[in-house]
Specification:
Strand content: under 5%
Low-confidence stretches: none
Radius of gyration: 24 Å
Order of helices and strands: HHHHHHHHHHHHH
Largest sheet: none
Number of domains: 2
CATH class of the largest domain: Mainly Alpha
Length: 292
């Protein structure tokens, strides 16, 4: 290709990417910078063009409700990610055995992810409420019912159940794609050597699925950080503040309590938590490519 042809191709490529790049820079980048600026001001109902340093962050870290919501998110996030990853890997391994109706099973397990968290929350709120279907089933078996949705000690587990049902299929699809990328000769060699299939899977195959596992982890973690819809649909943060999460705290102060400075400080801290996870993973993937 001539020099003119390469130049023309580059111009066309950048012209096609131009709107997307402008959207990222102006909308996303601009929103982040504006939020950071507001978090460093004394803004309440409306933005104020002053500078108070880290005063909003100090207030935030001394706010008992904020600290409690972080504890709830840590407990929820740990359980949610562990169960989703474990269940998703098991489903991927099971479907990778070339089972019958594989296409149907993939669709069934992945379908919940196409639903909104509001729809998922409403459905599971109806199922798990004290007079709902699950409680009726437990009473039919001779139990006392099911009151986790109104129990402050157990309400977070209902959120884990509902959101795991929705997100485990995504992990299954990602890990299944990784498993289908494994060289079939690897399985044949292991079979000839008499190595059990489960041992090959645990010691050889799964360690090679690092990129797939990293992708699933990042997607799940971002879902944990922005958890809001399911909480509002299922519990409204209750009973009391037993299921309150940072995103609900931020939205409450942004719209309900007219304190956009404090809400912006909370949003910046949650963004930093995502960057602290994503940045090392991006660096790891870049070093893997260079080594390859």
């Amino acid at each position: 290709m001539s020099r003119f042809g390469r130049l023309r191709r580059n111009i066309v490529s950048w012209a096609a990417l131009g709107p997307l790049l402008l959207t990222v820079l102006l909308v996303y980048g601009g929103s982040v910078l504006w939020t950071l600026r507001v978090s460093l001001s004394s803004s309440r109902t409306l933005p104020v063009d002053d500078f108070v340093g880290l005063a909003q962050y100090e207030r935030l870290l001394n706010n008992s409700r904020w600290l409690e919501s972080l504890q709830h998110l840590a407990l929820y996030g740990g359980l949610f990610m562990a169960v989703c990853l474990g269940l998703g890997i098991l489903l991927a391994v099971a479907i990778d055995q070339r089972v019958r109706a594989e296409d149907l099973l993939r669709s069934v397990f992945l379908y919940p992810y196409a639903l909104s968290f509001v729809a998922t929350g409403l459905v599971w709120q109806w199922l798990l409420q004290p007079d709902g279907a699950v409680a009726a089933g437990v009473r039919a078996l001779g139990g006392d019912g099911f009151d986790w949705l109104i129990d402050p000690e157990r309400v977070l587990y209902t959120l884990v159940i509902a959101t795991t049902w929705q997100a485990a299929g995504l992990v299954m699809a990602i890990m299944l794609a990784g498993l289908r990328g494994v060289d079939p000769q690897l399985w044949q060699a292991a079979r000839l050597d008499g190595i059990p299939r489960w041992r090959v899977l645990l010691q050889i195959v799964l360690p090679t699925l690092g990129p797939s596992l990293a992708t699933a982890t990042v997607l799940l973690f971002t879902g944990v950080v922005k958890l809001f819809d399911a909480v509002v649909a299922m519990t409204q943060g209750g009973p009391g503040n037993a299921s309150d999460v940072p995103a609900r705290f931020i939205m409450d102060h942004l719209f309900g309590r007219a304190n956009i400075g404090l809400a912006s400080a909370g949003a910046v801290l949650m963004l930093l938590s995502v960057l602290l996870l994503v940045a090392p993973l991006l660096y790891w993937r870049a070093t893997r490519r260079e080594a390859a």
